# Entry
Amino acid sequence: MDSDEPAPAVDPAVTATAEDIAAMRIRGAATIADAAAAALATQAERSEAASPEAFRRQLRAAAAELYETRPTAVSLPNALRYVLRGMDGDTVAELESSTVARAEAFRTDLEQAQRRLGEVGANRLRDGDVVMTHCHSTDALSCIEAALDAGKHVSAIVKETRPRKQGHITARQLREWGVPVTLIVDNAARRYLDRADHVLVGADSIAADGSVINKIGTSGLAVNARERGVPVMVAAQTIKLHPDTMTGHTVEIESRAESEVLSEEERADITAAGTASEAGDGSGDGRGDDHAGLEVENPAFDVTPPRYVDAIVTERGQFPPESIVTLMRELFGETTEEPWETRG
Ligand code: RUB
# Structure
């Protein structure tokens, strides 16, 4: 784009979706992908672009705004890439209809993939099994739903999942389906693994070496499960496969706000103790710097090495983590250029 050209107009509905994703009112990798595709369709429908080129620029700008919201779930760029690659035509009207159709196809495929994945995952669950969950994953829940549909009785040990307690969303959904739930704090997981037949989690991204990037705490759970002999099943549609990792890129781990871990009041309380001790040993002036000596770190995701994962369950079947790269090559080829980075 020439520097004197006006910035393409991104529709306010796209900006609203981007804000909802950033604020986690829309959250979870599959749900984020679905919302992003829907937002691109809205952008296409509401575009008042005067030329095909202006239309393309608008769509790319909308995709870039959505892309910036959260860094870890690859389903987001995968969704944006899929929709933009379907933008085809010589007129604005043709471009609009092809983009909207592509977004709709993506959303339908997403739903069907989740259902198929659920059926695959359900085959691993036997009647009477106890499943331990972490965070809230619609892919993981789809496996339980399919097991219930097949007439199996399943119960769940649901980890609360600090700091945002998305385990409560899982507990609510499972109770709605009539599944008996035991809710535990994260620290109790190892103790309760003795009662579990499976650990079942979702994924935000799967790397080419089979590493699983999911909500913080997943890796510790997987290590403990291995030590206890409980199999770890990762439910992840193929849009969770991270193409850039085939060419050596790593997955960015999102850091979230300190306030999710520590309120202002709690910080003041801890800081007061530090200030008092500094005053007591004579080394401080008794007032201190509110932020000195107390850092809060809040990574939202972690990486579980493939050796702790028994199976990655996708809509294409289940895979040992080490062989997932074969599926990745088949689906993505070797190219990783993002359409919203294309100029002109
Ligand atoms: C959610 C999370 C979920 C994955 C998979 O993190 O880690 O396990 O996104 O979810 P956050 P799904 O709450 O920070 O978005 O299976 O629904 O795609």
About this structure: Strands lie at 130-133, 155-159, 181-184, 198-201, 205-206, 212-215, 232-235, 301-304, 311-314, 317-319. The longest strand covers residues 155-159.
